[in-house]
Design brief:
Blueprint: E1 2-5, H1 16-20, E2 25-31, E3 36-43, E4 52-57, E5 61-62, E6 65-66, E7 78-80, E8 90-92, E9 107-112, H2 118-123, E10 129-137, E11 145-153, H3 156-160, E12 162-163, E13 166-170, H4 177-185
Length: 195
């Protein structure tokens, strides 16, 4: 199964061994579609553990309705469906979609993980992290989007800010976990951005 990782499981990260020990193989670097936010999930005392990234999808809107796909330069048409009724999908000409404020494309990696290993990997994922659909920018696809399974963050954390002993800090402006970590190593330390 092709699987998307966005942080500690990336090559050279402290949890990469969880992928390689079950036969996982790195396939490629990729970018999400530009409708994600990336957050540092930091333990709040008395909870302990490393800070981890959490990636949240924010569907673009068109005419006030959430859509299932985005219009890209590669796509001549866009299939849209309202969030309330996906069965209403229609094909329309190029549509201008409005992204949510503060979203962007996130640097990720795609790995090939044996299907038999996915259950064991999922069992070790603590909330609010989860497995879910991740939308990647894919110029070769007619829709401009490739949807794979991967690590995501449950959306309720974004609304609460702190939940289950985890503080939630937006780092989307860094464009990915590696860039965020590099900013810490350079002494930047900024967690909030203006872009």
């Amino acid at each position: 199964m092709h699987f998307v990782v966005c942080g500690l499981h990336m090559r050279g990260g402290p949890l990469t061994h969880q992928l390689t020990s079950v036969g996982g193989v790195f396939l490629r670097d990729a970018l999400s579609v530009p409708h994600y936010t990336l957050h540092v999930l930091s333990p709040v005392a008395p909870a302990v553990g490393p800070a981890k990234p959490g990636m949240l999808y924010h569907p673009p809107t068109s005419g006030g309705a959430a859509t299932n796909t985005i219009t890209t330069a590669a796509a001549a048409t866009t299939a849209t469906a309202t969030a309330d009724d996906p069965a209403t999908a229609t094909t329309a000409g190029p549509t201008t979609l409005t992204p949510a404020p503060g979203v962007g494309a996130i640097a990720v990696e795609v790995w090939d993980i044996p299907d038999v290993a996915i259950g064991g990997l999922l069992a070790g994922v603590p909330p609010p992290l989860a497995f879910g659909s991740v939308r990647l920018a894919a110029a070769a696809s007619p829709s401009g989007v490739e949807v794979l399974k991967g690590f995501v963050c449950e959306g309720w954390v974004a609304r609460d800010g702190v939940a289950d002993g985890v503080a939630f800090t937006d780092i989307t402006h860094h464009g990915g976990w590696r860039a965020y970590v590099a900013s810490l190593e350079q002494g930047d330390g900024s967690s909030q951005g203006s872009d």
